[in-house]
Amino acid sequence: MPSAERLEAFIAAVESGAHAKAIENYYTEDATMRENQAEPRRGRATLVAHEQAVLERTESVVSTCVRPVLVNGDHVVIRWVFDFRFKGGKTMRMEELAWQRWAGDRIAEEEFFYDPAQAKPA
After folding, report:
1. What does the DSSP assignment read for 18-36?
2. Structure pTM?
3. What pLDDT is attached to residue 121?
4. 66, 80 in Cβ contact below 8 A?
């Protein structure tokens, strides 16, 4: 179960734009991440590489945690809003729920739930 301080530090890291670094610092080595019940990506190194690939396509990402954050033991649900500005000028706003299972002070499993129609840049 994450402490309140550890959870707030994770949220602050994501909101600061340190997305890949947050994965390095807050996920277990064998963590999994999946989107809308798709096949999960496995392993922290894979998760970091995927995040870096997404970030390389952007000029900026503004990440906002919409509170309250829901915590029940090892399970955490965070509502995120991401405002992307891609290279070339296209923009995209994505709102999602991130369901996490923590193992101690690190995220072991995460699944994102969002409307795929949002994933089309404007």
Report:
1. -HHHHHHHHEEEEEEEEET
2. 0.94
3. 65
4. yes
